[in-house]
User: What shape does this take?
Amino acid sequence: MFSAATTPPKFFTLILMSGLSVMSLNMFLPSLANMAESFNTDYALVSISIAGYLGVTATLQLILGPLSDRYGRRPVVLCGIAVFTCASVVCFLSTSIEVFLIFRMLQGSVSAGIALSSPIVRDTTPANEAASKIGYLAMGWAVAPMIAPMLGGVLDEQFGWRSNFMFFTLAGIIVLIICWFDLGETNQQRSSSFSEQFRSYPDLFRSRRFWGYALCATFSVGTFFIFIVGAPLIAQEHLDLSAAQLGFFIGSITIGFIFGNFLSGRYASRFALTTMMITGRIVAIAGLCAGLFLFSLGYVNEWTVFGTTIFSGIGNGLTSPSTNSGVLSVRPKLAGSASGLSGAILVGGGALLSSLSGSVITAFTSVYALHVLMLISAAIGLIAAWYVLYVDKQMAQLEAA
Assistant: This one.
């Protein structure tokens, strides 16, 4: 009889379980218009499958972190992937938009994979080394959202939008089997009760460094959430791209993210977390400003629109591993709770930014609107990174005194 894993997971397993979480967000973006037609409803209602999914994911992460601190990382990840797989089957078979949306929300349980991959790394690795390792891990995550829209667009054109959810079903089964045999428990300091973990939230809320890291992460990744909601509309209204072409260009932002995470993997262990965070924000802002400048000169095409947003991806790749490591290091014994709470803030902020950007970009239907919203989000992330640096200097002065 086969037995479950008892040792820490291989790096490849962490990539798979977190990559599936990311892939489930944007793989079917090129199919949204076709789905609206299939369900005989409007685009705005179908787009709830993105914003609503993010909202549910944010709520779940408030629970997933404490659950993993109390009962362990392994059972939470396995249950999350199992629910995702079952929900994917129902999405594939759905004939009404109401049923589809309900089970699409349940797919959010797969967020356990990405929410707990960083705590699993942090369970066995010091802070700066964790940032480096998370950077390499995030390169693996980045492959999923890069290829997912491309694959989703091709599947839609060849077999229809439902094929995306059949893919999710098969992928969920495969990843669940791999995690069962390879994902051993890494949490060796479990809390005595589940309620104890929720009581830890006020302690995290009072930490200025936690808020700095969490807000920097939220508004950095917020540029990506704005992008995935606004890009399909911009492509339809201004660029006349097919579903497959749109999938390719939506995935292009992740090329930058991969490169940024490669740089984080190489250099994060040599520099302070705040140095990496600030550098990433400056790169993102510079690229988006370059895009606005090119638009003002009349150069509006798929290469200027998507080429300049690549710098936002590079900036996120530089920033995210350090914000993740910083959040987990504020209270190391509460790593799962900190990951869950920061994840909820990030995804909840992403849901709000998605809804806001959908309204603004629909109202203006302009490439300027997309870049300006992304620029504002990147700038707020920079302010949050500077705030962490300010708090760190204050704490160093107090310790010196």
Q: What stands out?
A: The chain has a mean pLDDT of 81. The longest helix spans residues 367-400.
